[in-house]
Amino acid sequence: MKHQATPLAHGWIGSGVTRPFFKKSRQGFHGLVLFLGLTLAAAGAQPVVVAVETKNPGAEISPEALGLSYETSLMLPDTHGVRYFRPDNRPLVRLFRTLGIRSLRLGGNSVDAARFPVPSQADIRSLFQFADAAGVKVIYTVRLENGDPHSAADIAQFIRRHHAAALDCFAIGNEPKGYYKDTNIYLAKWTAIRDAMRGVWPGARFCGPDDNPSPEWCRMLVRNSGAPAGPLVQITQHSYSFGCSYKNPGEKEVTKLVPVEAAAAREKMLSPKAYDIYQKIYDGIATSIGDAPISFRMSEVNSYWFSGLEGASDRYASALWAVDYLHWWTSHGSAGLNFHTGDRTGGAITLPCRYAAFVSSPKGYEVRPLGYGLKLFSLGGQGRMLPATVSGATNGNVAAYASLSGKKTVYVTVINKAHGGAAADTEVEIKWDEVLKGENAQVIELLARDNDIAAGFSEVTLGGAPILEDGSWGGKWAFLPLVPGAERLRFHLPPAAAAVVRVRIQ
Predict the structure, then answer these.
(1) Which CATH entry fits the domain spanning 66-380: 3.40.50.300, 1.10.645.10, 3.30.9.10, 3.20.20.80?
(2) Which fold has domain 22-59+384-504?
(3) Burial (0-12, 13-18, 19+ Cβ within 10 Å), 165
(4) Strand 28-31, strand 22-25: pairing
(5) What does the buried/exposed string (b/e) look like for 59-80 if buried means 16 or more CB atoms within 10 Å of the residue's CB?
């Protein structure tokens, strides 16, 4: 299977003892990080040990690993004739760059919904001009259900002539199993549109099937779309890991939808059992691709489908979940993940987006907790992956991932999912297989007020600062003093917190 990396080892352990100290500041609050001077005796427990193998780097994390997914309908002008994606939308451009977003996928249910028109050339031009300003590659979806091959060809020709450099690949349709039960009909429709687009752009690249996990559909597309030498370059899958936001998703009247219980939903997001869900999906993708030289991408993901769950998808638990989710999938060979977002999401039924990374606000965009998790990944998820193993207690609370940027800078991400009244600080010891340079390492922390996984967006900081509505962020790395010639360092991580440690090796 092409581009498949050896999965990073990750482990799980328990928590330490002391509660973190928070103090208020002009921009909110920040955690007081306790460093090397704290001893095991002071901590009262054996540390969590993260062993990092710097001499055996693996596959490189794709520069486009971190992505967002939007409804195609958002390309259309609003009631005032203003487009969301436009090059002069400075807060949005700045926020994309601040968060480290490098992939932008347009699709969702609205791409196939008859009530939305196909975007015009002006809409497409504005989108790609925004992409150039934000520094992202675009996955562009054309309509499949009742789709017109000639219309799709016109779109392909326009993008080829004016915006080819910013295009990653084309997708055809969204979640086609929902409207094509006969796979022969699906393949005929998909192939007709693909061939029409290739007629005007012979080198066009395609991905698919852009559906919920289904090894059979992935295998069918690989087998029937020209692999290994054809234009299908990537298998794309969707996944809403924890199910539907509502107990009665078939209800047509929005006011009668019954949400699932939010507290239990938050617990599911942080449970070690989530890895069983990911592994099952991964196994299906891997077996469907086999030896074909095709990569895979999770092109539409989030926590709970049907626009997310209020009280869970929009709370701090989603930040911890997202950074771990990103690392898990990239360490298993995924080319990247696109988190579905927007102010509203859906096709025939649209709802306020609870799983959004950020939403529109009077001064720009209000960054939700999920967005903080994406930002933390962008800080630590770069370079070539390194094996990182965790030892300590085994109650399933802490994960660690590592990577090597360049030849000498190592990033270690540690996520402490212990939470609740009984949770306490965890002392983390990072052990290297090389001697550290005699200079300071640095750490940056993701925190919520009172270590509360139900905290809202205004109670979250990264590096002691919030991400502001204009897309700016003033977070700071803190120093971790090292002993010259040492092969390990220690720091304390509060409950319900995550951190990236950055250090140079010899």
Answers:
(1) 3.20.20.80
(2) Immunoglobulin-like (2.60.40)
(3) exposed
(4) antiparallel
(5) ebbbebbbbbbbbbbbbbeeee
Tokens representing 484? 């010259």
Pairing state between β 358-361 and 48-52? unpaired
pLDDT computed for residue 438 by the predictor: 61
Round to whole Å and give the CA distance between 73 and 109: 9
Domain ranges of the chain: 22-59+384-504, 66-380
* Identity of the amino acid at 358: F
Q: Is the pLDDT of residue 21 over 60?
A: no
CA atoms within 13 A on the CB side of 245: 20
Tell me what the pLDDT averaged over the chain comes to.
Answer: 89
Q: What is the edge-to-edge ordering of all strands in the sheet holding 488-493?
A: 388-391, 48-52, 426-432, 488-493
Q: What is the DSSP letter of 319?
A: H
Report in angstroms the alpha-carbon separations of 129 from 73, 87, 143, 389, 472. Answer: 17, 5, 22, 43, 21
Q: Contacts for 215-219 with beta carbons within 8 Å, 24 or more apart?
A: 215/284, 215/285, 215/287, 215/288, 216/288, 217/177, 217/183, 218/284, 218/285, 218/288, 218/289, 219/287, 219/288
Beta bridge partners of 207: 171, 234
Q: Are 354 and 317 in contact (CB under 8 A)?
A: no
More confident residue, 390 or 44: 390
Confirm if 173 and 237 have CB atoms less than 8 A apart.
no
Q: How far apart are CA 342 and CA 78, in angstroms?
A: 14
Contact 445, 20 (CB under 8 A): no
Q: Are 227 and 294 contacting, i.e. CB atoms less than 8 angstroms apart?
A: yes
* pLDDT tens per residue, range 367-426: 999 999 999 999 999 999 999 999 986 577 999 999 999 988 999 999 999 999 889 899
Question: Would you place residue 224 in the very low, low, confident or very high pLDDT band (cuts 50, 70, 90)?
Answer: confident
